[in-house]
Amino acid sequence: MKVFAHRGLSSIAPENTMAAFERAIVINVDGIETDVQLSRDGKIVICHDEKVDRTTNGRGYIKDYTWGELQAFDAGSWFSPEFANARIPGLEDLLNLVRTTDLCLNIELKTDKVFYPQIEEKVLELLEKYDFVNRVRISSFNFESLLKVKAILPQIETAAIMKDPNLVSNFWDQISDLTVKAIHPSYQYVTTELIDEARKRGLEVNAWTPNQPEEIRHLLKIGTHGVITDFPDRAQHIVEE
Predict the structure, then answer these.
(1) Residue 184 annotated to the active site
(2) Which homologous superfamily does the CATH classification assign to the domain defined by 2-50+89-240?
(3) Sign (positive/negative) of CA torsion 193, 184, 29, 237?
(4) Which of 13, 16, 51, 142 has its CA 20 to 30 A from that of 89?
C-alpha cells in the first residue's frame, strides 16, 4: 500500500507549505498530495481552500489576489509560532523541491467551487516544463476538469475524487468515460466490494484521509492501493509491520 502525505506532512507543519513538503520528503513518502488554485494574474497557487482565511492572516478569495499580494500573507503562524512568516507556495516551488527526488505528486485541481480559466492548461504546461508528466497524477472532484486534462495531454494519469461512490449516479459508467487511473473515495466508503470491482476494471483505489491506526490497518487489510493521510509516518509503520 502506497502512502501519500496529505498536503505534505501536515500533522507537524502547516499544510501545503514548503515546510510540510520538506518534512514529507525527509520521511521518504511514496508521494505528496497537494491542491492548486489560480491567482488573479494566472499563477498556479498551492492552497486547499478557495479563500486564504483559514490558513493565513489574510482574508478573501485567492482568485482576487495577485501572486505578489498573496506572498505578503503569513501561512504558518496559525499552525505554530515556529512557522511564522511561511509563505503560500506556487506549484513551481514544489516542482523545484521534488524534481531531484523519486517521489510522485498527486495534484488536485480545485475547480469544483470556483471557475479558474485555463487552470488545466497552466498546470500541464508547468508539468511539461519540469519534465514531471510521468511522475504526477491529476485528481479532481470536477469530472469535467479531468476530461479536459486528458484531452490536452492523453498520457497523463488522472484520478476521480468523490466522498461516497454510492452517491454518484451511474458511477462505474462515469468512471469508464473518464479513463482515469484511480478513484479516490473518502476512506469510510472503501469496501472490499469497491476494491474488487475497481481491480476488475484496472483501477486503483486510494483513500482519503485515514489518520487513526485502526483505519489505516483496515484499509491495508482489505487491499486498498494507497492512503492519503495527515500522518504518513504512522501509515508507513503500519505498512511495514
Answers:
(1) no
(2) Phosphatidylinositol (PI) phosphodiesterase (3.20.20.190)
(3) negative
(4) 142
